[in-house]
């Protein structure tokens, strides 16, 4: 019982300590080694932060997410209205004012699509709306226009997958900055992911590869 209480208390303390979470909104439960987070939070960013905090505090426990992203008082959180507000926010941002980013919202889950000139702009699009009230989640599908080195790395990956008779790298996004390659997106298998990373490492001029690929 004491160990049980210690784990629960550790999660509660971590939530209190993390400035990205309002711990007053979250109730922590623990049954049979399974942690449950219950309550409602104002946006998806706080929900994700709370889950990460619980996993840090109890790395050996399973964390169940029962958190609900609530619609702020006085708002209706209609998908079309949210999409319009987010588009306006992006249009007013100095870094994104001329970016070709489209916004769709389904069940308060935002999908960003389009093309931008730099990885910084792609990241800015998410950072700008991460804490937008009422948003449950963000799927960032914005891609960066490929420069010379990005094209070389992407070509290296495509050729490596073709040689290994693996699926094409249609869902792999390549960003390059100062010789550092960042791979994001999804792979069909762990084998495809490994081949893509190896190809990036072997591309001319690459100093480091940051692997953020997910296997679907």
Automatic annotation (TrEMBL):
Q: Which chain regions cross the lipid bilayer? A: none
Q: Extract the Pfam families matched here.
A: BON
BON domain location: 3-71, 78-146, 149-216
The molecule here is called: Osmotically-inducible protein OsmY
Q: What is the lineage of its organism?
A: Bacteria, Pseudomonadati, Pseudomonadota, Betaproteobacteria, Burkholderiales
């Amino acid at each position: 019982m004491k160990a049980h209480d210690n784990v629960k208390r550790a999660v509660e303390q971590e939530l209190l300590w993390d400035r990205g979470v309002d711990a007053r909104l979250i109730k922590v439960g623990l049954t049979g080694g399974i942690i449950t987070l219950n309550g409602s939070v104002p946006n998806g960013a706080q929900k994700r932060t709370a889950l990460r905090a619980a996993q840090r505090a109890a790395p050996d426990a399973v964390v169940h997410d029962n958190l609900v992203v609530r619609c702020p008082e006085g708002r209706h959180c209609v998908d079309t209205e949210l999409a319009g507000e987010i588009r306006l926010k992006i249009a007013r941002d100095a870094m994104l004012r001329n970016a070709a980013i489209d916004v769709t919202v389904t069940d308060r889950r935002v999908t960003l699509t389009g093309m931008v000139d730099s990885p910084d702009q792609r990241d800015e699009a998410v950072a700008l709306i991460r804490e937008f009230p009422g948003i449950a989640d963000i799927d960032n599908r914005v891609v960066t226009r490929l420069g010379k080195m990005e094209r070389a790395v992407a070509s290296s990956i495509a050729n490596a997958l073709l040689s290994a008779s693996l699926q094409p790298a249609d869902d792999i996004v390549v960003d390059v900055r100062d010789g550092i390659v960042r791979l994001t997106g999804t792979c069909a298998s762990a084998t495809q992911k490994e081949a893509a990373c190896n190809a990036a490492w072997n591309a001319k001029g690459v100093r480091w590869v940051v692997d953020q690929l997910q296997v679907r």
